[in-house]
């Protein structure tokens, strides 16, 4: 199996456009998810033709304009840092489209991809469209921004969510998994985690493990790293003094998030 943690290896794609991360079937064991993290300088642009893939363009920080040649969405983006903890704007673009991203200011953009054979409508997902949740109790609290939840019908396969976890807390916890095509009990969804820390020199711990422990890896994850979860449980622990952000992308054969808790730790859900 390919390794699970990917550190940024910046390379120039075009003038003013730096590719920080690229996750796909060539360097991972994933079948349903691809990911790009890009930094654009002001007034630079990036263009791509999708083929048989859908994409969610997330304006992580800074301001951008996105067009598919027919629809244009200008001045997207709401924050200079993800740790402002406010939702941001995104754009969903369907298969066989060519899209262009133009940076109004310096910006970081995440492109979240999944294979698709269904033609959908290019859709602006405004920051105000994000549903906001506060999950967990005690040291298991986190803030969630749902960009593309399974309750909306915009996308074919993609699910996209942002999660903020304060220092000293755990996230994606109690440990849960979604690697079996066994609805209504559990759905099969691969997952990626794009991580940022505040302050930037911080780190978190993430464990990815299966019931049989044939996969059992615990990683020290730093700012800008991506963790790939092809299967198994995947909790995140955040040390005191540092806050955690991650952008989750999930995709599988069916667009349904139905998870299964690790039975050994499910008792934690009974705490008040």
From TrEMBL:
* SUPFAM superfamilies per record: RmlC-like cupins (SSF51182)
Question: Keywords for this entry?
Answer: Isomerase
Q: Which reaction does it catalyse?
A: 5-deoxy-D-glucuronate = 5-dehydro-2-deoxy-D-gluconate
Pathway per the UniProt entry: Polyol metabolism; myo-inositol degradation into acetyl-CoA; acetyl-CoA from myo-inositol: step 4/7
UniProt-listed Enzyme Commission number(s): 5.3.1.30
* Enzyme class per UniProt: isomerase
Return the Pfam families for the record: KduI
Task: Please give a single GO biological process term from the UniProt record.
Answer: inositol catabolic process
What InterPro entries does its record include? Deoxy-glucuronate_isom_IolB, IolB_Bacilli, KduI/IolB_isomerase, RmlC-like_jellyroll, RmlC_Cupin_sf
Query: One MF term from GO for this chain?
Result: glucuronate isomerase activity
Gene3D superfamilies the record matches: Jelly Rolls (2.60.120.10)
UniProt family annotation: Belongs to the isomerase IolB family.
Q: What does this protein do?
A: Involved in the isomerization of 5-deoxy-glucuronate (5DG) to 5-dehydro-2-deoxy-D-gluconate (DKG or 2-deoxy-5-keto-D-gluconate).
Its recorded name reads 5-deoxy-glucuronate isomerase
């Amino acid at each position: 199996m390919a390794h699970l943690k990917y550190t940024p290896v910046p390379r120039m794609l075009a003038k003013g456009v730096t590719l920080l991360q690229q996750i796909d079937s060539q360097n991972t064991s994933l079948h349903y998810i691809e990911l790009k993290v890009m930094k654009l300088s002001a007034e630079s642009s990036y263009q791509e033709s999708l083929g048989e893939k859908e994409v969610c363009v997330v304006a992580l920080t800074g301001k951008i304009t996105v067009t598919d040649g027919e629809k244009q969405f200008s001045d997207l983006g709401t924050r200079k840092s993800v740790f402002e903890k406010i939702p941001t704007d995104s754009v969903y673009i369907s298969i066989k489209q060519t899209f262009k991203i133009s940076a109004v200011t310096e910006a970081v953009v995440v492109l979240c991809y999944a294979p698709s054979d269904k033609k959908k409508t290019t859709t602006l997902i405004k920051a105000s469209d994000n549903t906001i949740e506060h999950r967990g109790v005690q040291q298991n609290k986190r803030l969630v921004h749902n960009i593309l939840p399974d309750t909306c019908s915009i996308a074919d396969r993609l699910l996209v969510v942002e999660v903020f976890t304060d220092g000293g807390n755990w996230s994606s916890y109690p440990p849960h998994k979604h690697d079996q095509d066994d609805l209504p009990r559990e759905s099969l969804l691969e997952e990626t985690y794009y991580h940022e820390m505040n302050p930037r020199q911080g780190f978190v711990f993430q464990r990815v493990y299966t019931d049989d422990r044939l996969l059992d890896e615990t990683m020290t994850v730093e700012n800008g790293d991506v963790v790939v979860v092809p299967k198994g449980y995947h909790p995140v622990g955040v040390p005191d003094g540092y806050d955690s952000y991650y952008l989750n992308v999930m995709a599988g054969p069916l667009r349904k998030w139905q998870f299964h808790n690790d039975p050994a730790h499910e008792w934690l859900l009974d705490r008040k």
